[in-house]
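#onboarding

Welcome to the new folks! Below is a worked example of what a typical request in this channel looks like: someone posts a single protein sequence, and someone else replies with the predicted structure as tokens. Don't worry about understanding the tokens yet, we'll cover that in week two.

Example request:
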Amino acid sequence: MNSQWAQMQRREFITLLGGTVATWPLAARAAAPVIGFLSGWFAGDSNEYLAYFRQGLAETGYIEGQNVTIEYRWAEGNYDKVPALVADLVRHQVTAITIPNTTTSAVAAKAATQTIPIIFLIGSDPVKMGLVASLNRPGGNLTGINALQTALVAKRLELLHELMPATTRIAFLVNPTNRAFAEADTREAHEAARVLG
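Example response:
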């Protein structure tokens, strides 16, 4: 991923998180809010996201360990664990849930709570995934950023076809435990292959 594009996405995500923090009720802000941070990755793979996350919180006046607590949950690539991780955050009555990656985590979080604010950064179309009503007016308790990864599946296949027009078989790998993302990407790949013949 282009470094400048990644940095822009991170900034948008942090801005969105900061806006959500600003809307927390005064009582929640006075009582040191607890934020759930749910990642599909391993803890060591998220250092850059965590740095931007903490920076964004600091820019809105929240410092981890001083006036905000963060409950971290890591799926470690095993997306079958995600519903239990989300349920644990809901049981802890976190003030908000932040999901910096993985569509499966956002889908599980939506299923688990209709009241806790959820902020996501995912590669799938959040409208098609049923996470939000529309991009302009998400409604409900979810909002976030779409990184357009699923939308690029067709373009990648087109580029491969241009580079190797005689090739009739192309392997497409997905992580089957990240069901929501895998299904969306696979549908997109099949449709693009059909269009290309």
